[in-house]
Amino acid sequence: MSATPHPAPVPPSGASTGSRAPAPEPQPLVVRTTRIDPLPADLTALVDLLPDTRPLTWVRRGDGLVGWGEALRLDSFGPGRFADAEAAWRATLDRAVVRDEVRLPGTGPVAFGTFAFDDGAGDHFDGARPEGSLIVPRVVVGRRGDVSWMTTVSPADQLDAPGSEALARTVRETVTSPGRVRFADGAVAARDWPAVVAEGVERIQAGELDKVVLAREVLATTERPVDPRWVLARLAAGYASCWTFSVAGMVGATPELLVRSEKGLVTSRVLAGTIRREPGMSDDDALLHAAQLARSSKDLEEHEYAVRSVARALEPFCSSMNVPDAPFVLHLPNVMHLASDVTAVLDPATHASSLTLAAALHPSAAVCGTPTTAARDLIREIEGIDRSRYAGPVGWVGADGDGEWGIALRSAELGEDPRHVRLFAGCGIVAASDPQAELAESEAKLVPMSWALGGLS
Ligand SMILES: C=C(O[C@@H]1C=C(C(=O)O)C=C[C@H]1O)C(=O)O
């Protein structure tokens, strides 16, 4: 399955970055943001606005951003994918003409982005598929509490001025359900996956590394083409405390925030250590399970590696940092996680954007392992699937560099054939991991996406 870019509708909009294709000079973008009538405090109010089947989305608890159309797309390749994307974004902004009447995070020029897990140096690199994409939509609608806004972007200001009337005039294609869904094994069958995990455990016990995160894929085939808006509405309503995202065919609802950078304050929500939540489990039982998770030395060890990797990566960019002494338990409908919110003050002298921070943080021990290089090598050697953009950064960046980047977990990649979807789930493996228990954990992590497709009731 590939992440082939869709052609942008307005020339010359398809700028490519990276060494293999020098970026053509982009046309100046004309960007206007205006307040609109407040959107209702409804979990799906934003995603319900999306007019077509190529939605851009970053939504949590009814707040966030949705976008459509493609004013500009910046694809990047290989190990330089973050730096090249950032340089192209800055060059675009240098030439942009901006009128922002709202001035909140997410107003003015915004690019949605999705980046591959691997830097392309391994065997999976196919040389054609971009490992990074930043997309500047033609229209963005945002909501932050009582304030809602609309931004229009055009190389030549051919669009209507933004505003509630312009939004009301947007023609929306009907959202259709994917119909019946069939699930099948991916490159590694479910019954063979415990052996992969067992190999990981063995290598850890042999002292090669401390932790590795191993993932598997499941292939879904649907009766009708998947309309990502169908999936997004279900995820936004069913997993309200997660960040529901959609960028260039990568969709999901992640509970893990790689980094938010807003007005000098940096936040990262680190997750590692998981326990399944059985369907129908009572609140009392859930609390018992939570207490068990909070005491599990295996999960605490896994968590500690992840928190340390985040703190270490943020340190060079921050003047102060708060790392909680102990994690809290994050309750989700399908699983509970050990979670830590790391907060820090950005050192202004570094001029680091949210994308720079995401690049520095990726891959954290929560999705790769410890030490990073040994874990990444082992993933390449034994995992047997192409992660593509699963477990990579997904989110948005604004004109001042502030933005939010999640880790693309509880996610799926929509195929070029819109009836084919790849679902992903992975588990942190340490010396004490039990392969069959990890298989059950991976099944629980697949629930949000299979449910959103309609494959589970
Ligand atoms: C790798 C995934 O999740 C990660 C692994 C976790 C774990 O092993 O406990 C928990 C949260 C995430 O950091 C995934 O959902 O695919």
Automatic annotation (TrEMBL):
Any GO MF annotation of the entry: isochorismate synthase activity
Domain Chorismate-utilising enzyme C-terminal: 191-445
Domain of life: Bacteria
Biased composition range(s): Pro residues: 1-12
Enzyme class label: isomerase
Any Pfam family the entry gives: Chorismate_bind
InterPro entries per record: ADC_synthase (IPR005801), Chorismate_C (IPR015890), IsoChor_synthase (IPR004561)
Keyword Membrane recorded: no
Annotated catalysed reactions: chorismate = isochorismate
Keyword Isomerase attributed: yes
Ranges for region Disordered: 1-26
Bilayer-spanning residue ranges: none
EC id: 5.4.4.2
Keywords recorded for this protein, A-Z: Isomerase
Family under the similarity heading: Belongs to the isochorismate synthase family.
PANTHER family named in the record: ISOCHORISMATE SYNTHASE ENTC
Annotated protein name in UniProt: isochorismate synthase
Species of origin: Isoptericola halotolerans
